[in-house]
């Protein structure tokens, strides 16, 4: 058999991932991604002007938003490197509107389903009158719209489809370092891409430093308050647990909501098993919870005071007056980027811009020190502006 087969879906050419049935080649690399593909209909373009969008931007956000439009007009791919809570989603509304006014199709892709659901609601509320569809596992009845909000896993359905694709959380699992998902992302693009992150890798930064690409930075949150600097609390053995119980009760008595992060699913469940005995009105979530979305919604609605969670909630969620404790923050699963992202859950609202982040550890790691240094450096940039 020849080894010149190219998978039409993911572009794989590696013979290691190519099998044969009755002499016909097939790709084992993307075989799990089965389902109908989107068909672009040329007679459905809507060139109507997008109505005035009802949202506010800070001075820094406005400058970056305008630069995104300039880059779009000049056909330049862009990386948006913006701190947690900078309002990255709002930054791209104007360029989305311009693309739609030309009758073109936009995608907003993120790695995680929970974030797709929240983004879909927000974007649909802004772009009223436009067809906004959400596509994720178990929810793929409608594939085509003016704006498609989807998980990166669903990009296999779109071949050279999107005139503009916005990919947020580029450093998040499962997209990060996933060759298949990265291939699907690139093959879905017909026009330009905007990639966004608060913690881009060195490789991504170097890629966008090349000719005909652009990096736009935003080192301040939209409300212009500093990022919360985590407190590193060192406790050993059971003392760590009792400190957590005491801190949880303190936050709850002050009327504050709390995320308690655990490094693994098993530790999440064990921690919850012990916490629920002494601290009432909480629950737990992780990637294997079938009712995860309902629990998060109930937390947002005030049913629970605290959530014990894995990194499934490290990104894409915003709650007012939230406090964060990372239990075993010195675990090897937490690199500096993850710690920064989790810390970035705190103080995201303009009417509640402050809060506490606690790294509860046995020892301080290099990743913890790097995360603290990065946050301090970003805050220094804000002080210099004021």
Main features:
single chain; 386 residues; alpha/beta; Rossmann fold; 3 domains; 7-stranded parallel β-sheet; 6-stranded parallel β-sheet; 33% helix; 20% strand; globular
**CATH second-level architecture of the largest domain:** 3-Layer(aba) Sandwich
Task: Work out the number of β strands.
Answer: 15
Helix content: 25-40%
The secondary-structure class comes to alpha/beta
Strand content: 15-25%
The shape, in one word, is globular
Could you characterize what this model shows?
The chain has helices spanning 59-73, 88-91, 93-101, 113-126, 179-187, 202-208, 237-253, 265-278, 292-300, 336-343, 366-385; strands at 18-21, 24-27, 77-82, 106-110, 132-135, 147-151, 162-168, 189-197, 213-218, 231-234, 257-261, 282-285, 306-309, 322-327, 357-361. The model has no long low-confidence stretch (mean pLDDT 90). Helices cover 33% and strands 20% of the residues. By secondary structure, the protein is of the alpha/beta class. It is globular. Strand 7 (162-168), helix 5 and strand 8 (189-197) form a beta-alpha-beta unit. Helix 1 (59-73) packs parallel to helix 3 and helix 10 crosses helix 11 (366-385). It has eleven helices and 15 strands. It folds into three domains: 1-32, no CATH class; 55-218, P-loop containing nucleotide triphosphate hydrolases (Rossmann fold, 3-Layer(aba) Sandwich), CATH 3.40.50.300; 231-291 and 298-385, Rossmann fold (3-Layer(aba) Sandwich), CATH 3.40.50.300. The strands form three sheets. A seven-stranded parallel sheet has the order 5-6-4-7-8-3-9, with helices on both faces. Strands 10-15-14-11-13-12 form a six-stranded parallel sheet, with helices on both faces.
């Amino acid at each position: 058999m020849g080894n010149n087969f190219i998978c039409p879906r993911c572009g794989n050419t590696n013979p290691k991932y190519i099998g044969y049935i009755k002499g016909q080649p097939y790709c084992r690399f993307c075989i799990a991604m089965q389902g109908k593909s989107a068909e672009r209909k040329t007679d459905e373009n809507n060139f109507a002007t997008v109505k005035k969008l009802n949202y506010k931007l800070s001075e820094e956000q406005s400058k970056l938003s305008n630069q995104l439009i300039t880059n779009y007009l000049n056909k330049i791919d862009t990386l948006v490197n913006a701190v947690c809570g900078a309002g990255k989603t709002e930054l791209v509304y104007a360029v989305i509107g311009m693309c739609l006014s030309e009758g073109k199709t936009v995608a907003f892709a993120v790695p995680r389903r929970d974030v797709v659901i929240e983004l879909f609601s927000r974007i649909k509320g802004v772009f009223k009158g436009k067809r906004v569809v959400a596509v994720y596992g178990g929810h793929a009845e409608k594939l085509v719209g003016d704006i498609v909000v989807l998980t990166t896993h669903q990009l296999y359905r779109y071949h050279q489809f999107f005139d503009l694709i916005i990919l947020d959380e580029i450093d998040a699992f499962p997209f990060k370092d996933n060759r298949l998902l990265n291939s699907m992302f690139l093959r879905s693009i017909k026009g330009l891409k905007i990639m966004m992150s608060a913690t881009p890798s060195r490789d991504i930064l170097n890629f966008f430093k090349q000719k005909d690409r652009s990096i736009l930075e935003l080192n301040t949150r939209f409300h212009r308050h500093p990022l919360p600097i985590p407190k590193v609390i060192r406790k050993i053995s059971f003392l760590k647990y009792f400190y957590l119980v005491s801190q949880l009760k303190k936050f709850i008595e002050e009327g504050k909501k709390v995320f308690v992060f655990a490094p693994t699913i098993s530790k999440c469940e064990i921690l919850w098993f012990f916490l629920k005995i002494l601290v009432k009105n909480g629950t737990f979530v992780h990637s294997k919870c079938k009712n995860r979305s309902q629990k998060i919604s109930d937390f947002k609605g005030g049913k629970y005071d605290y959530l014990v969670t894995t990194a499934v909630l490290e990104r894409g969620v915003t709650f007012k007056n939230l406090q964060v404790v990372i239990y075993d923050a010195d675990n090897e699963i937490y690199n500096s980027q993850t710690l920064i992202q989790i810390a970035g859950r705190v103080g995201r609202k303009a009417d509640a811009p402050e809060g506490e982040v606690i790294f509860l550890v046995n020892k301080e790691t290099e990743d913890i020190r790097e995360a603290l240094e990065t946050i301090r450096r970003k805050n220094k940039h804000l002080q210099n502006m004021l």
